[in-house]
Amino acid sequence: MNNQTQTPKVMVVTGAGSGIGRAVARRAVAEGYNVVLAGRREPELAASVPGGPHALLVPTDVTQADAVAELFARAVERFGRVDVLFNNAGIFGPSGAVDEISLAGWNDTLAVNVTGSMLCAAQAVRTMKAQVPQGGRIINNGSISAHSPRPKSVAYTVSKHAISGLTKSLELDGRAFGISCGQIDIGNTATDIMAELDVETGALQANGSLLVEPTFPVDEAARTVLFMAGLPASATIGQLVVTAVGMPFVGRG
User: Domain containing 102: what range?
Assistant: First the structure.
């Protein structure tokens, strides 16, 4: 938990207009952080947290380098520094095997999930290197698909495997500057992206069957992210997996 007797830490949350990003932003504000909420649509951002001095809304397309640079510039202008980036913006992308999806769908998924995450991480690193005291923490939102895919999810699965590589590279290259990076891989928290998997009628399994899969409350995922964010600078979590109890992940495939 952020120590409110000290200057509040500053967290940038991408994809903050819905789902896990919204839950993390709300919990961060409640725990005393100054929070910069980034997302494509300002009305969704405005619905994420109550107005007040501890929240800054910045409509941002994370696939655009200029927009990401503006996001971090506004964060520093308002709060003076950036202590944590929750690199969360992402899309599930097209459903299909590699021979079934369009090039446009593939490109859109990688643009948001990989290039967007890279651009935000790059700007966070620049900011964290330049500030005094130097350093900070990046938490990438991966997925259990970074470990094992769902059927018909090639674009999303490839993008989340790429996030694992990004996380490890950021952790290695950030060491000299007091910048740590970890990854949270979440399975079946109750968000809109899970609705896209049609969990009410059944999600496609590796054997071709449909199965209604269990979910867990999104605030529990947010609580885990805030735990990672609140670690002392001397500690980091490289990768953490949190799933709904009983979901078909172990042994998937």
Answer: 10-243
